[in-house]
Design a protein that fits this description.
It is a single chain. By secondary structure, this protein is of the alpha+beta class. It has two domains: about 130 residues, Sandwich (Jelly Rolls), CATH 2.60.120; about 45 residues. It contains eight helices and eight strands; from the N terminus they run H-H-E-E-E-E-E-E-H-E-E-H-H-H-H-H. It has a four-stranded antiparallel β-sheet. It has a four-stranded antiparallel β-sheet with strand order 2-7-4-5. The chain is elongated and about 55 Å long.
């Protein structure tokens, strides 16, 4: 729980009673490799904070191929925030790539924090903004760079992911085929 509280406190202040309330509503779970945290078509009912492991967010295109939108690693929240907040069915799948340890908070408890914890809404907005900026930084190179440069940028920015994520997911994330990624990897060795 300490990792979660430390992360949250980067975005604002909480008193000891507020911290105790948050901790009392959290529970730790294990999510096995390939298990889903949430699925498209189902309403997300919890938010998670990753203590250990890697999760990917993906969807299926019109051809039935799964397309990786992004990866989420330790010390980050995982949720389809738009649909979680609105109580609508998710549009993407959220799946563990590795065995994961998470702290989860139910939607009911999350909403309680919004009404009982001074500044919680402001902290959530700051966390959301920081996450959005991270996403934008990830997406921009995917649009403007060639495949080799995208892969090299991926290795530079996320070296800890390179050996933890299957190549098929990396290729999907980069918008290239797995065979193209294999050729690129051979070429740069």
């Amino acid at each position: 729980m300490e990792q979660l509280i430390t992360y949250i406190l980067k975005f604002g202040n909480l008193n000891q009673e507020e911290i105790k309330l948050i901790i009392s509503k959290c529970r730790q779970i294990k999510l096995n490799k390939q298990a889903y945290f949430s699925e498209a078509g189902k309403i997300p009912r919890q938010i998670g904070f990753i203590l250990n492991g890697v999760i990917r967010v993906f969807y299926y295109n019109d051809n039935g191929e799964d397309i990786t939108r992004f990866f989420i690693m330790e010390r980050n929240f995982v949720v389809d925030l738009k649909n979680f907040s609105a109580g609508l069915p998710a549009t993407a799948y959220v799946q563990a790539i590795t065995d994961c340890d998470l702290i989860v908070i139910s939607q009911v408890d999350w909403n309680e924090f919004l009404t009982t914890t001074a500044g919680w809404g402001s902290m959530v907005n700051k966390i959301t903004s920081a996450t959005l900026l991270q996403k934008m930084e990830r997406i921009s190179p995917l649009i403007t760079e060639d495949a080799t440069t995208r892969y090299l940028t991926f290795l530079e920015k996320y070296p800890q992911l390179a050996n933890r994520v299957p190549l098929a997911y990396v290729a999907s994330y980069l918008g290239i085929t797995q065979s193209s990624l294999s050729r690129i990897r051979k070429k740069i060795r």
